[in-house]
């Protein structure tokens, strides 16, 4: 369902026009008209399920376009001869009774075939539709283009690539009901035309490069690129590399110098914060949320850094805070302190490595995921993306996995190497250089945690640190050290070594052939041959190892991976099971290969340095070989630690997931057991001052839980700003079913959201515990609210948070926002924007999360001393902030029976600002909330 679907059309268009600022149809539209003189047919199917093997078509929509204009449509229901599942009816609105008199597929297909003829087919995820039709021998030879693939490359900064989000991006209005075949077919056709115009505006040499990269692969975006090349055949291509200007040289700045005179402080600083700076203290400081003000430490930090010429590092936990700091608070601060220099740093994995990019461009992509990512990166660079962000938008695990080949998170990535290879034109090195000259250095918690113990840290030396949103530090420090290994990723790493004709070894031999005298060349060739022969065996043994691991999972559990991944914690007890013997045997063979290869590559790298000095062999080859040796060493050590359990400070687990179209995927995970140890050893003890701050640090009145989780020193001081009483009503239904009661709970939840929305007449934020839960209920809720002229904005369709928020604000009274908890924690709602918040469940950790279980084992009473405080902090982060930010009356409804029945409920209530609490059956909710909002209840 589209998030803005119930907005009046005129209003929706006004929002979208304002938001997306469409380009005028100029040159590209003119070219587009010429190119699109051919006919194409956009196609969409509605089906009873996702798998073409056993699902059935229930509706076909096809739209014929010429010159980008819609000229003819075809639409039919198709009787599937089976019952249509309820969830399909919920999504499409197609009911079983609609099939009375509808034609069967055999009658429909000839008509569809006649309509399409030999036209090119276009669709969003066209592969899905073609699978259903190819099954009936239809369109098996037709050329097809996929708008998802095309958009993924041509819109490198888009946050979503689903059809609805792309329609919003191009201001394409739906022509009919959502999730109906013809509506989606027409939308896909219009989207294709919009993308085609974008494609025609790219530099010709870039179009050519992507078409060449795509040629060996069966990619559904190839056709438009080839057509664009054909269309522009007479255009002269510039000889320059289209991305040559994308990497800016590092900017020189004068060194830091103390500033004698500063303007007076804008506001009186809090005494504990001032004292922390002046007396070099460790302080936990909880402040009351105030969305209109900058964080209370910011100006103090800037003054300190300016006066003392000593940098202050500030870290944050959320994207929302980064955005506020970057776009609002720092510009305001710079206006007062023009000499102030602030620099953001990101995780290494977020930066594009220009050197690796060149290698991949030269070698070409191995598969479609790599190709899509590479092409997207090239378009992003050609559009100047690297200047404003370290990486393009990356969606989905396959693209993330491919990004690893391009990112700067390489073991061998050093300033020295960069200087010699890239002349310093590396975005990561540029930011690092600027950070070394900045007063304030800003980074997320993950970057801080990843950099504090590395051998070549991005962060310059610092002794003063401010950690905002400190309740998120443990999670993000964990994530930064969370390692994932899967067979596909490992195979890709191994492919970088190559053979005598390809990749690293191929490049070494090719270069040596022209530069080395015969004897050293023969010796190098012999060595490389042996190395390549050994490398060729590794994928085979790697597959054996992963097969053995999968067999081990199957032998130790009856569960099947379904929509949710199956996880098994790998403990000593598990390793001692007989079923693990096969794993050990497979590793003992593979481990010999990985160890020998790592040693051989290290030896080769040393030799290449000598050949570089003696015979001017490329130095880059030595660096690449060094990198490959380190990669192999790292791979060996990781698997050794994982399979023989040599890292006691890590939590290890196996995850088996079943992904649509990709089959089963086995991943090995490793994450730190206690990030507090890492923080204590590598961070706190090196600092003079640390301010650990945020709006949710205490559980009740106690800072102890978070202090312990973060490993803060004993002498850390604590302080919290007084929380002001808010005009909040907390309604706790006494008759809520347990969430485990499935359908009964879902119906109850839907009733509660609908009644609350009707009572408040909108201005409601309902936070679901998961996307699955939201998807189950969103359609029902939206349909009912539409009858009451209330507008539903729903996160489950992939609409971006910005678009949803803008729609919510544009509608104002009458808007209901359905979101997933966590995603909205940091969003600032203005006064009067919300009248009510509904929370579906208390935010307890998932009980079978291996990290949660492993960490809980260090507590005598894990539930009371770990699970509850953890959930209370998350609860404060979510609803506490929403209540604190409102100065008008607001109602909070919590649909969790535990708030009535469990002792710990009071701990949750105590963590909120003083509020009016009412416990009553749901049927009293509407009257109670109405009285409260009208001021009748006090
Ligand atoms: S320093 Fe060199 S190897 Fe590292 S990211 Fe930059 S260009 Fe790549």
From TrEMBL:
Alphabetized PROSITE patterns for the sequence: HELICASE_ATP_BIND_2 (PS51193)
Entry keyword Nucleotide-binding: yes
Residue stretches making up the Helicase ATP-binding domain: 252-520
Entries under Pfam families matching the protein: Helicase_C_2, RNase_T
GO molecular function terms noted in the UniProt entry: 3'-5' exonuclease activity; ATP binding; DNA binding; DNA-directed DNA polymerase activity; helicase activity; hydrolase activity, acting on acid anhydrides, in phosphorus-containing anhydrides
Example of a GO cellular component annotation carried by this entry: cytosol
GO BP: any one term: DNA replication proofreading
UniProt superkingdom: Bacteria
UniProt entry keywords in alphabetical sequence: ATP-binding, Exonuclease, Hydrolase, Nuclease, Nucleotide-binding
Gene3D superfamilies referenced in this protein's UniProt entry, alphabetically: P-loop containing nucleotide triphosphate hydrolases, Ribonuclease H-like superfamily/Ribonuclease H
UniProt-recorded name of the protein: Helicase ATP-binding domain-containing protein
Top-level taxonomy: Bacteria, Bacillati, Chloroflexota, Candidatus Thermofontia, Candidatus Thermofonsia Clade 1
């Amino acid at each position: 369902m589209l998030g803005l679907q119930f907005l009046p059309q005129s209003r929706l268009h006004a929002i979208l026009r304002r938001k997306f600022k469409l380009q005028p149809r100029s040159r590209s539209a003119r070219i587009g008209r010429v190119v699109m003189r051919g006919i194409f047919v956009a196609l969409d199917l509605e089906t009873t399920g996702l798998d073409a093997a056993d699902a059935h078509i229930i509706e076909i929509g096809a739209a014929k376009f010429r010159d980008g204009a819609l000229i003819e449509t075809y639409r039919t229901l198709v009787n599937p001869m089976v019952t249509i599942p309820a969830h399909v009816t919920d999504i499409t609105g197609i009911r079983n009774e609609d099939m009375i008199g509808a034609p069967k597929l055999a009658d429909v297909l000839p008509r569809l075939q006649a309509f399409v003829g030999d036209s090119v087919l276009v669709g969003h995820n066209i592969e899905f539709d073609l699978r259903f039709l190819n099954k009936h021998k239809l369109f098996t030879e037709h050329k097809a283009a996929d708008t998802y693939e095309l958009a993924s490359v041509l819109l490198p900064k888009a946050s979503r690539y689903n059809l609805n989000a792309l329609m919003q991006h191009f201001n394409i209005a739906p022509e009919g009901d959502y999730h109906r075949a013809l509506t989606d077919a027409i939308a896909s056709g219009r989207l294709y035309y919009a993308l085609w115009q974008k494609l025609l505006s790219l530099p010709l040499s870039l179009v050519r490069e992507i078409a060449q990269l795509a040629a060996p692969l069966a990619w559904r975006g190839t056709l438009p690129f080839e057509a664009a090349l054909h269309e522009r055949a007479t255009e002269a291509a510039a000889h320059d590399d289209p991305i040559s200007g994308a990497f800016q040289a590092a900017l020189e700045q004068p060194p830091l110098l103390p500033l004698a005179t500063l303007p007076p402080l804008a506001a009186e600083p809090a005494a504990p914060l001032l004292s922390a700076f002046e007396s070099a203290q460790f302080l936990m400081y909880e402040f009351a949320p105030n969305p209109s003000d900058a964080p209370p430490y910011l100006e103090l930090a800037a003054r300190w850094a300016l006066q003392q010429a000593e940098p202050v590092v500030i870290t944050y936990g959320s994207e929302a805070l980064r955005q506020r700091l970057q776009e609002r608070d720092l510009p305001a601060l710079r206006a007062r302190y023009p000499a102030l220099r602030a620099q953001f740093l990101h995780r290494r994995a977020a930066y594009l490595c220009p050197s690796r990019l060149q290698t991949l461009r030269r070698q070409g992509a191995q598969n479609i995921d790599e190709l899509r990512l590479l092409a997207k990166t090239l378009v992003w660079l050609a559009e100047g993306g690297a200047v404003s962000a370290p990486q393009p938008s990356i969606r989905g695990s396959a693209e993330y996995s491919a990004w690893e080949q391009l990112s700067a998170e390489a073991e061998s990535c050093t300033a020295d190497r960069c200087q010699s290879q890239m002349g310093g034109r590396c975005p990561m090195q540029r930011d690092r250089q600027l950070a070394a000259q900045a007063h304030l250095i800003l980074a997320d918690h993950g970057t801080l945690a990843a950099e504090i113990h590395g051998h070549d840290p991005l962060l310059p030396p610092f002794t003063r640190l401010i950690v905002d949103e400190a309740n998120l530090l443990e999670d993000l420090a964990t994530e930064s050290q969370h390692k994932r290994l899967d067979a596909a990723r490992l195979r890709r790493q191994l492919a970088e070594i190559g053979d005598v004709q390809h990749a690293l070894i191929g490049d070494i031999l090719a270069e040596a052939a022209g530069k080395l005298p015969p004897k050293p060349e023969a010796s190098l060739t012999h060595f490389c041959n042996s190395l390549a022969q050994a490398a060729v065996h590794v994928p085979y043994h790697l597959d054996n190892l992963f097969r053995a691991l999968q067999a081990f999972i199957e032998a130790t559990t009856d569960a099947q991976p379904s929509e949710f991944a199956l996880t098994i914690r790998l403990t000593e007890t598990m390793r001692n099971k007989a079923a693990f013997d096969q794993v050990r045997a497979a590793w003992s063979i593979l481990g010999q290969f990985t160890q020998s290869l790592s040693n051989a590559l290290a030896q080769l790298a040393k030799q290449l340095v000598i050949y570089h000095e003696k015979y001017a062999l490329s130095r880059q080859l030595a660096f690449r070989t060094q990198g490959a040796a380190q990669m192999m060493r790292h791979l060996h050590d990781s698997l050794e630690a994982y399979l023989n359990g040599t890292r006691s400070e890590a939590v290890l687990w196996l995850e088996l997931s079943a992904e649509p179209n990709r089959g089963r995927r086995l991943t090995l995970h490793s994450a730190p057991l206690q990030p507090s140890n890492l923080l204590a050893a590598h961070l706190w003890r090196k600092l003079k001052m640390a301010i650990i701050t945020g709006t949710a640090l205490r559980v009740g009145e106690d800072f102890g839980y978070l202090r312990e989780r973060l490993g803060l020193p004993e002498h850390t001081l604590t302080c919290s700003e007084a929380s002001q009483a808010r005009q909040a009503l907390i309604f706790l239904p006494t008759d809520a079913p347990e969430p485990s009661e499935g359908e009964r709970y879902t119906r109850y939840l839907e009733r509660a959201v609908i009644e609350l929305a009707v009572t408040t007449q909108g201005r409601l934020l309902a936070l679901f515990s998961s996307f699955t839960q939201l998807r189950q209920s969103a359609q029902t809720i939206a349909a009912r609210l539409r009858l009451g002229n209330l507008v539903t904005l729903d996160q489950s369709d992939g609409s971006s948070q910005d678009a949803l928020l803008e729609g919510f604000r544009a509608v104002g009274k009458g808007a209901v926002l359905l979101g997933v908890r966590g995603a909205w924690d940091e969003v600032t709602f203005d006064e009067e924007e919300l009248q009510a918040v509904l929370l579906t469940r208390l935010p307890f950790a998932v009980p079978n999360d291996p990290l949660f279980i492993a960490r809980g084992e260090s507590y005598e009473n894990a539930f009371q001393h770990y699970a509850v405080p953890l959930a209370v902090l998350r609860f404060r982060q979510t609803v506490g902030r929403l209540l604190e930010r409102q100065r008008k009356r607001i109602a909070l409804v919590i649909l969790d029976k535990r708030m009535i029945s469990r002792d710990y409920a009071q701990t949750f209530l105590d963590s909120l600002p003083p509020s009016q609490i009412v416990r009553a059956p749901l049927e009293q909710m509407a009257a109670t909330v109405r009285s409260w909002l009208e001021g009748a209840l006090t």
